[in-house]
Amino acid sequence: MLDDLHIHDFYRDAGRILLALFGQFPLPSTIYVEDIAGPDTPDEFGLHSPRHLACLGALSWLKQSGYIHFSQLVRQEAAEEVVLSHRGFLLLINKEEHSGQSNAQLLNSAVRDGSSAKLQALVERLMREFAAL
């Protein structure tokens, strides 16, 4: 069986990135990888940890998939002028039918609760919604 820890980390990183940008919207901001993934301890050659690089990968994937925009990466430390895309913003303000809460509120709750299963189900639903926007 595959260890899906990296997928759970991706869901958590993606959720934290989207929430950080929603909280600043529409102002572009700088997203520091360590603020999302936690402190990094580069090795003796200055290479970042796999966890740090995975978070950086989530940030890049969100851009490539159209959830966010940013001007550039600063080394492997941060992204500058990061903002939600139009579709990313619409996704987060959409309300869930059953609870009446916005997707941003649900995502905030799921990230705060720390439940991997709850967060996974929500992020997967959000990705399906995003594809339909």
Could you explain the architecture of this structure?
The chain has 133 residues and is of the alpha+beta class. The chain has helices at residues 5-24, 33-37, 50-64, 86-93, 103-113, 116-132, and strands spanning 29-32, 68-69, 72-74, 78-84. Strands 1, 2, 3 and 4 form a 4-stranded antiparallel β-sheet that branches. Helices cover 57% and strands 12% of the residues. Helix 1 crosses helix 3 (50-64) and helix 1 (5-24) crosses helix 5 (103-113). A hairpin with a 3-residue loop joins strand 3 (72-74) and strand 4 (78-84). It contains 6 helices and 4 strands; from the N terminus they run H-E-H-H-E-E-E-H-H-H.
Any idea what the radius of gyration is? 15 Å
Shape: globular
Q: Describe the sheet with the most strands.
A: 4 strands, antiparallel
> Average pLDDT across residues?
93
Regions with little confidence, pLDDT below 50 for 5+ residues: none
Number of helices: 6
Helix proportion range: 55-70%
Oligomer: single chain
Euclidean distance between termini CA atoms: 34 Å
Structural class: alpha+beta
Order of helices and strands: HEHHEEEHHH
